[in-house]
Design brief:
Helix 2 crosses helix 7. The longest helix has 20 residues. A 5-stranded mixed beta sheet has the order 2-9-8-4-6, with helices on one face. A 4-stranded antiparallel beta sheet has the order 1-3-7-5, with no helix packed on it. The chain is elongated, with a radius of gyration of 22 Å. A hairpin with a 5-residue loop joins strand 8 and strand 9. It is built from 8 helices and 9 strands. Helix content is about 30%, strand content about 25%. The two termini are about 25 Å apart. It folds into 2 domains: about 110 residues; about 140 residues, Immunoglobulins (Immunoglobulin-like), CATH 2.60.40. By secondary structure, it is an alpha+beta fold.
Length: about 270
């Protein structure tokens, strides 16, 4: 647990443990929504204000936590817990929230982090390998899961790979156009079937829209694949051979550039 989180939670009079900042099965975003919206009635003694009195809606708060002004941003439980505990510890207006129990604080954090998500999580990398061109890799499963504590549906606008050799990947079924109820999910598989020996590094972009809003937002997974025996990107800049890069070396260099661009986009 980061020291700052431990200190903040000590101010909340919570019993800290090694797993405090990771969501657990008992953490309840529905209970967290009740606490967030009406803390005096459902929280501890001495609490006279609710979260929206300072922060507006939960979407406003998520936009601030995300740092990108995105009310639908993918927020981890760890990030939500850190921000909430730090605010209670360091802001005098929130001192009254220190009477919350450990579980009540965790439930509020679970609600703050309750936005549409993917498994594997947003901005994870999926790595594939095929034995030869025109042969398929083992498929990998991706799940899109809607938030729990919401009254709005989630529309999956599209699932598509974009970028270097995107055509080497197939998605079945794509879940395109599916509407998920709260806590609903859709599962699909991604398979790599290379048409050539080029290394592949596209982004799998999942475009979503919540409720009646016309605003679209995304979850992204990074795909990386090659044919077994193709030199990895890490060797692309190795000039120990003293000669010009061959076709595979140039492909590896292109993939290394694509991966660097990803890191810059995430920074």
């Amino acid at each position: 647990m980061p020291p700052a989180v431990r200190a903040a939670l000590a101010g909340l009079a919570l019993a800290c443990s090694g797993t405090l900042t990771f969501a657990q099965a008992a953490d309840d975003p529905l209970a967290g929504r009740t606490l967030f919206n009406n803390t005096p009635s459902s929280g501890g003694a001495g609490i006279t204000m609710s979260c929206p009195q300072c922060h507006g809606s939960v979407e406003d708060r998520r936009a601030r936590i995300s740092g990108s002004n995105d009310p639908y941003a993918d927020i981890s439980f760890d990030t939500a817990m850190t921000r909430f505990a730090g605010a209670v510890q360091n802001q005098s207006a929130m001192a009254q929230f220190r009477t919350l129990t450990q579980q009540q604080a965790r439930n509020i954090a679970a609600y703050l982090a309750d936005t549409p998500e993917t498994l594997p999580e947003h901005e994870s990398q999926l790595t594939f390998s095929a034995t030869a061109a025109n042969t398929s890799s083992a498929p990998q499963t991706v799940t899109i899961r809607h938030a729990v504590a919401t009254n709005e549906s989630l529309t999956i606008v599209g699932v598509q790979a974009f970028g270097a050799e995107a055509g080497n990947f197939s998605v079945q079924p794509a879940c395109n156009g599916l509407v998920l109820a709260p806590a609903g999910s859709c599962q699909f598989t991604v398979t790599y079937t290379p048409r050539n020996t080029n290394l592949s590094a596209p982004d799998l972009v999942i475009t979503l829209r919540q409720g009646t809003s016309t605003t679209q937002f995304e979850r992204v997974l990074f795909l990386s694949a090659s044919i077994a025996g193709t030199p990895p990107p890490a060797n692309a800049g190795d000039d120990s051979g003293g000669g010009a890069l061959d076709a595979r070396g140039l492909a590896a260099l292109a993939l290394a550039v694509a991966l660097l661009a990803r890191r810059r986009r995430r920074a």
